[in-house]
Amino acid sequence: MEGSSVFLLCLTASSGVPLYCRSKRSSRQLTFSVIGSLNGVHMFANNQDVLLTSTRTENSRVLWRTFHESINLIVMSCDSNASDHSLNRLLENVFSTMVLVIGLDDLMNIKNVERLKKDLRACYKLIDSFLTESEKIGDLTQCVDCVISNDSVILQECLDGFTQAAESEFGCLLIGGKVVVATEKWWRLASLDAMLLCWLVSSLSPHSSRDYPVYLPQGSPTVPHRLLTFQLVPGVDVCILCGPSPSLQKVELELVERFWKPVLDPVKSCLRLQLRSFPISLNLHQGILGFLLINRDLNKSLYTVQVHPFEDTQRSDIKCILEHRRASLRSFYTLTMLRYFSPEHHDGKIQYEEAFPEGFTHQAHQCYVVSSSHKCYATKTDLHFLFLLFKTNVPTFSMRAIANKTMQVFTKEFNF
Amino acid sequence: MHQASFPKPGSLIIPDWHQNAEGGEYLSCILRKRKRRMFGLIEQPVLPPQLPFDIASYKIFVCGKSGVGKTALISKLCGLEVPSVHHETTGIQTSRVYWPVRPRDSQRPVIFCFQLWDCGESALKKFDHILLACKEKADAVLFLFSFTDRSSFEDVPALISRTLSQDEDPARVVIGTRFDQFMHTDVTDQDVGLFQQTWQLPVMRVRSVNGPRLSDGISLDGRIELLDAAPVLNGLAEILWHRDQITAGLLASDV
Ligand SMILES: Nc1nc2c(ncn2[C@@H]2O[C@H](COP(=O)(O)OP(=O)(O)O)[C@@H](O)[C@H]2O)c(=O)[nH]1
Ligand SMILES: [Mg+2]
């Protein structure tokens, strides 16, 4: 397998018929015999009452997962940054995507495999975005990626009015799949469902409006709802989730202009938030390269690796640098969450991956990592997680103070 | 007014207007650099004050069996990438296309705003509200067949009666797709001529394939895409203009 390629396979669990195969960074297709062997070894184990979940070779990892005894997903990754945790998330996201588009019933009772194969093509764009996405991190956190706008008060007002006029309670304003504002009820959707809807909209090819049937994997996996989307300006969509009424036409003709034309300028200025995720007017410490802030109650996150965009644009190798920053922040997040912040609970007892914390009755609230290219610092409060990526010249002892200050800015001043 | 006649191409509008100096200036409002300019729902084309214009909006429902080329045609008209792998469109998607036209009888140019409604067949079958939503207040319905699939051509009259009831009265336009695949064509010029005579409906021929790329190797050349799309856009504009004039009593419907 090449460099950092990833292959994703989907098969029926009962007969092992391949349903689709997607890949990242690879021009090659997996041969039928490789697909057969990958599925065969899982099936063989199954027949021996052994559940095969993952394996590793020197340069790759393979994970298997069966959903509802009906669908098998297999991922094979040569990406050195991948972990079992991140690949498991990928498989969950991919299956949830299939539910979102097809509905759980048709996935659990497969009547016509050829028909299902055809229908599944409608999932490819969203699945591919989980394989390749870089600007968002909801695939890993299963939280909703957000941006902070200076105009959020007026945009929120418009959105609330618009959503209500469209007979719905679930509305959000999206830029490139990140939420600018959303209605109160939207934040009460299961976080996986809300995340998927945002990713869905940003993965589809641009359209003026859509009336898209969606099954919510957590909230309503067998009964479809309607997702209506309206492109206010290219790159900015307003979405509502609703039942049988109102018609797309009615909302588009009677409500979109009425509510949104008066705020054309604030809507357009959202486009400038895309990379940094928060306004240029807000200055953060010079040593911060990127961060991830999670609101644990609303399951929303703020994520960027371009805290100082002007500084960055002058560098020629910027693409590589950003990719490296993203990879570092993602691994640090995974490490911290699994080992220190919210390890899995089994029978009421916390299971740590290493022996050290088991000797203590309390849990870690802060942690840091120092490497040759970056420093990372994480802190946890009742309501938030904050993960920071620093330049190496930032003194290790000062990271806590900077973290606390950054947390203050976003949670107190911007109410995130 | 059912089966009202359709205008002879070029009789109501100047067909190659966008290639002369005046038309070229108007055309620039739907281009940005060499790419097609896209507009959201709360925007519209802007022109300097010395270039006055009116805007006329029309809802157009595009129908035809799965895989016939509905989504590809709409992408082509929008100047967007034509998808190479077919998957059925999920639910309804709409696209707005702006197109400046010079009607012969109008004081100033008119920018047509076509709101193209596209939906997948399984959505139509699964959810009752979808067909109704697509037809609701439509000004025109495009019935697509494929030149490489004779059965789709023979099914057009049935498709029309399945889609529209007697009292529904949008303009009806028949469009043959895959006209580029003449090696595999299954429908002859003669067939089309006969059809046109029998049903008194306009028939257009399209090839929805991506044109050349700009020097970045990725973006489509907006100007060339527009020239490719011009005959269909002009054709639709003329049919809708004609229909408006009959409705307004300015033109007799000369059946
Ligand atoms: N060569 C050629 N291919 C076409 C044409 N129209 C559609 N196609 C292809 O046919 C397939 C199905 O088209 P699509 O528009 O998605 O079908 P529909 O939306 O289900 O009606 C796509 O892969 C298109 O690229 C055409 O005019 N010429
Ligand atoms: Mg389609």
UniProtKB/TrEMBL annotation, chain A:
**A Pfam family recorded for this sequence:** Fuz_longin_2
Q: Where are the transmembrane segments?
A: none
* CDD domains linked to this entry: Fuzzy
Cellular component annotations (GO), alphabetically ordered: cytoskeleton
Every FUZ/MON1/HPS1 third Longin domain range:
287-413
- Kindly give the InterPro entries that the UniProt entry links to this protein: FUZ/MON1/HPS1_longin_1, FUZ/MON1/HPS1_longin_2, FUZ/MON1/HPS1_longin_3, Fuzzy
Q: Which residues form the signal peptide?
A: 1-16
Coiled-coil region(s)? none
- One biological process GO term for this chain? vesicle-mediated transport
Q: Which superkingdom, per the lineage? A: Eukaryota
Question: Domain FUZ/MON1/HPS1 second Longin, which positions?
Answer: 168-260
Identify the residues that the record assigns to the FUZ/MON1/HPS1 first Longin domain, covering every copy.
8-129
Q: Where would you find this protein in the cell?
A: Cytoplasm, Cytoskeleton
Q: Which UniProt keywords apply?
A: Cytoplasm, Cytoskeleton, Signal
| Family from the record | Belongs to the fuzzy family.
User: What PANTHER family would the database entry show?
Assistant: INTRACELLULAR TRAFFIC PROTEIN-RELATED (PTHR13559), PROTEIN FUZZY HOMOLOG (PTHR13559:SF1)
Name of the protein this chain belongs to: Protein fuzzy homolog
User: From what organism does this protein derive?
Assistant: Pyxicephalus adspersus
From TrEMBL, chain B:
Q: Which SUPFAM superfamilies match?
A: P-loop containing nucleoside triphosphate hydrolases
The Gene Ontology CC terms held by the record are: cilium; microtubule organizing center
Q: Does the keyword RNA-binding apply?
A: no
Where exactly are the transmembrane stretches of this chain? none
Q: Which GO terms describe its biological process?
A: cell projection organization; exocytosis; protein transport
Keywords of this entry: Cell projection, Cilium, Cilium biogenesis/degradation, Cytoplasm, Cytoskeleton, Exocytosis, GTP-binding, Nucleotide-binding, Protein transport, Transport
Primary localization: cytoplasm
InterPro entries noted in UniProt: P-loop_NTPase, RSG1, Small_GTPase
Cellular compartments annotated: Cytoplasm, Cytoskeleton, Cilium basal body
One MF term in the entry's GO annotations: GTPase activity
Family, as annotated: Belongs to the small GTPase superfamily. Rab family.
Describe the task this protein carries out.
Potential effector of the planar cell polarity signaling pathway. Plays a role in targeted membrane trafficking most probably at the level of vesicle fusion with membranes. Involved in cilium biogenesis by regulating the transport of cargo proteins to the basal body and to the apical tips of cilia. More generally involved in exocytosis in secretory cells.
- Protein name as annotated: Ciliogenesis and planar polarity effector 2
Species of origin reads: Pyxicephalus adspersus (African bullfrog)
